[in-house]
Protein 1
Amino acid sequence: MQTYRPDIDGLRTIAVLSVILFHVGYSQFGGGFVGVDIFFTISGYLITKIIVEEKCETGKFDFFRFYMRRARRLLPTLLLVVAATLLVGFFMFPKDLTQDLGGSAVYSLLSISNIYFWLNSGYFDAGANLRPLLHTWSLAVEEQFYLVWPALLVGTLSLAASGRKALLIVLLFVGCGSFLAGELLLNGWGPTYIQQLAIDAETTTFFLAPFRMYEFILGGLVLWLPKLGPKRSLLSDLIALTGIGLMAYGIFFVTEESKFPSYNALVPCLGTALVIWAQNGRFIPVALGIGPMAYLGRISYTLYLIHWPATVYYGFWRAGPLENADRIAVLAVTFVLSATVYHLLEKPLRRPTPKRQQLNRSAFGLVCCFVGLIL
């Protein structure tokens, strides 16, 4: 049974703040982009837990309900941000940038923007700061994960007599295969025709979902770890502290020049999994779950979607590198807009109250499709 864990929202806060502070130009957060990898590991844990527990407890899994919940969580804010980004770009950008923005918007709405940017750029290319929807590549990877993961888990649990044990073997096999495939590509060890298809090894392993799958699986594997001692356990705190240290390695010591994803993504993902596992600690889980940390984690999706277009457009208007005052302005706009969108759009549609009329499934789907087609 799913129970709310504020410490996981605290992990989301670390992830999203790392990404935002990296993008606005704080050099201390040179590896802040690994916040995306932290998000992937959190998602792997939560989604695997939802699927495995429902299947094991009830003997079945409601695919339609699962995908409707994901849609209510992701689509309304994404549609709003894409619409606002297109509108601002139409008036602010020259023709060539507007055309590129339109292309990335279409791919974003189809959940394949990672493929668009794989074919057209690298994440750290000089022109990346003129692509307001570049950050949607990670959302596309996550949605592709949602597409295949339930079928894989439910199919394995249904067909294998040993159930969870067989699923563990499958996860280990897929996870190791995902990581090793990336290493082969990055080191040029694969067959020549594979290297040629990859276009650019670093860009391929960065953007494409198969080479990121192990990050989700690391989170899912937490379900098979033995439960740690009683509540307020010192051992749990030591494990969580080790995890925080591994995450800090990625955030503060990985750079744009580092070999990536590779072990530089594996390390913070492993740290995230350790923190999730060590939920019985006396200090670390409590610190992660305090009010401001948990709140920022709850609005982290909206923060992530809004911060990059705000940064790109402000930088384009500024026509130069951001100074400290500019960074503060971008951060302020991002937090105000994100809190507003979360409370007025995301939260009401995701968790409607009894007093508020809820769109039924058909109406919600039709409205999202209609808005998407207009965009």
Note: DSSP finds 17 helices and no strands in the chain.
Protein 2
Amino acid sequence: MTTIRQDDVIQSVADALQYISYYHPKDFVQAVTAAYEREESQAARDAMAQILINSRMCAEGRRPICQDTGIVTVFLRIGMGVRWDATMSVEDMVNEGVRRAYTHQDNVLRASVLQDPAGARRNSGDNTPAVIHMEVVPGDTVEVELAAKGGGSEAKAKFAMLNPSDSIVDWVLKTVPTMGAGWCPPGILGIGIGGTAEKAMVQAKEACMESIDIHELRERGPSSKAEELRLEIFDRVNELGIGAQGLGGLTTVLDVKIKDYPTHAANLPVAMIPNCAATRHAHFVLDGTGPAELTPPSLDDWPEITWDAGDSARRVNLDTVTREEVASWQPGETLLLSGKMLTGRDAAHKRIADLFARGEALPEGVDFNNRFIYYVGPVDPVRDEVVGPAGPTTATRMDKFTGQMLERTGLLGMIGKAERGPEAVQAIRDNQAVYLMAVGGAAYLVSKAIRTSRVVAFEDLGMEAIHEFEVEDMPVTVAVDAAGQSVHDTGPREWRDRIAGIPVRTEPA
């Protein structure tokens, strides 16, 4: 009988979460590198270059790949022959490991978990509790799979109860375009088929933790219907032309993973959960000999890639930029931003909207007139850092506030990740504003452009407080111009036609 000690569980969970915060899985790095090398879309290629450079920087500096360090999901397979040397419950041991990982002084991770989700939405402060699934199985070990799942990709989870005669492929192809780019492609699609509604969702999440091996499957050929589906969905989703960061290109998904389970004759439950460019998961086994050891990868596993904005990039001084200057920016154009910007995301926007509803003014020191707002919730700094990893959050969540912000504050532009919805695009066009896109999944790289940081309002909101950043040469892409043209519409449409062999139109139809 194996004895599993309490401290070994806690230490193993904490170590694994620290490990995955800064080390991408080797198979993911290899898959993105291969996609980068074959990519023909310059915008998508540039985005993947930034993702790979950021990944290597994080491995070297042991700092988070993404500012969204995720909500922790843990799958435990506990052997029936295990004996516990513990005073805490298994859930409490796991959560103590999470707590230690996220408050580690050398690599503080962002606490994103909110208690009372339908009410006050108070931050727990240490990213607990984790979402824990336990299974008792034959054996005398404890097998652990854990992931730190980003909110942007989790928000794009989909479920459908199809009829038994319906096509799963058709549902996926109809659904993926509705997910936009907020899940930070290129990534992995985890698909769960069968069981019941909740079983399908759990299977999809488990599938996200599997290794990338689609090319090996293609070489050996499928041996089951699920494997045939993997290959068909992989090919046909990539033919959609969505591309890295939704900018249009050859690679949208790096792999499609499927898990299935017997289901009722009347049902065909299907769940789909994407894993983003900050894919983070680990697998280890506790056998009673001590904490798990995860071997650091070699830096040789990362490609030697350099990237710069190029001679065509336009340098912008945020402190002097005018509305007339903004009106000259073109969709897809690369900008290098320098100067001061304010930050704000969901909670800050809600609080500002509430102030306006009560007829109250913005807090002292908060002036958005002719300025830019960056949708970000940064990681706390460590050592001599000005700020921790500070990549963009999904902009569409701020769409409902955009018209009010532009009309009532004089805001000139916004910076985030992924596309904007029709409501926001209309507001941008009506107010002659602009939306700029930073690369999701390159948070540590982006943070190196931030020279100073200070909280100017709503300090109680933690990572969602309003900061003022001073940046130097922060790279962004013009995603929606002052006329309302969006690269997230034009890019994928162009590359879908290219992939299908349809001549690309250069003039409006």
Note: The first strand starts at residue 2 and ends at 5.
Protein 3
Amino acid sequence: MATATADRPKTQGPSVKPPKRPFRPRTLVIAVVAWGLAALFLAPYLEMIVTALRPKSELRDRSYLPSSFEWSNFIEVWKQSELGQNLQVTLLVAGGATVLVLLVALPAAYYTARMKFRGRKFFLLLVLVTQMFQPTALLIGLYREFYQLGMLNSVWTLIITNAAFNLAFAVWILTAYIGSIPAELEEAAMVDGTSRFGAMIRVTLPLALPGVVTALIFTFITTWNEFAMGLTLTTDPASQPLTVGINNFIGAYTVEWNYLFAASVVAIIPVIILFAFIERHVVSGLTAGSVK
């Protein structure tokens, strides 16, 4: 009898709807403020897109929207400048600097986080101090050095310099993130026969992916937006990065605003796409080490 009762399917009672949350004026105020701030930050980008599509004859008009959209501005900006070559140079420099930073920062951060060696705190302090140097303060020395080496107007010159100025942040953020991963996980893998290098690649590196992505996106965006070193170390228009190529639309007496903003729209699209794909990893990587 007890078995029959136990096997009998239980009847579900009427579903209870969760109580509705009462309306709070504070929620409405927060939503209005949030949307207002979003509109405030998006307004310059909307103005940039509208100006990029504005005919040249209407650049000085007071109306916000033009009478017609000049889509040919995006075609003309490719024909009248080295924008395509500049975009290729920027992609090579940003990608090369990011790969170089990760190849150097990962072993350095792993060793610093796992090994207790003499001078460890001084090394981390030195890494932090180097992040405080302004690249523009070293431009004259860098220009003279690369001039003597015959490496001006070279993609490798921009890759090396950008990687050097972004390496400190990558080491710092990766050290904090790897330090938050329990070392017992690697020890368990090494007990099973894996070497330390194999444990780092198979265990630590997948767990440290948010920190790696944070270092990646920071290095890529910083290199993508870099201007001073690209302007100083390159003189050939075909060898200049995209930021310098866009600056060429600003003349001594006139500014071609429609082409300037059209090139700016082209420049921000790759960064927006990259950040949209890995934004969630960036947030978790920046908070690494804050909670133990």
Note: Confidence is low (pLDDT under 50) at residues 1-6.
Protein 4
Amino acid sequence: MTPPFDRVRVEAAVRELLLGIGDDPDRPELMRTPSRVADAYTEFFRGIGTDAVAITRQGTVHAEDGDRGQLVIVRDVRFRSVCEHHLLPFIGVAHLAYAPGAELIGLGTLSRVLDAVASRPQLQERLGEQVAESIADGLDAQGVLVVLDAQHQCVTTRGERQSGSTTVTVAARGTLAEPAARSEAIALIAARGSGPGAEHEADA
């Protein structure tokens, strides 16, 4: 069983960190910093121990053959996670696609699955694989594709400081791991409509 979030230990650790960098945790401007960091970490790491497959299963509904369609794509789902190497955030968008089997999943459930897996110390490559696996296992989909495009603060704010760079990763399962189907799905993700309201489709 995953131990519960220990706020007291987090606050004590932040205080030690401030001492370690040579600052004074008792100066007025820093006195509430340990508590503020604990608040942030409560949110950033709330996905530790969460069963993303269970979230997927809870959001599924049976669908008749004529209602399933061949491919479902949700584009531009914003997410944030924390790089486990430096404990710095990486922020980006996810494009989630699946080829339905016997069931469909609520579109909002897809974003909840992503958030659950992202809200823990992560690597982007593993994040995509875990989201794809959670959707594939929980939905019993014929195929799953997860494309992540994110900017990492460990790259943009330290070292060579590549401030404009992003990282793209692709994870696929089932039929969408086949090159032709994967290429078609990625092309649909990249496409943008030209009809009324198309500029707002990411917010729909």
Note: Residues 7-44 form one domain.
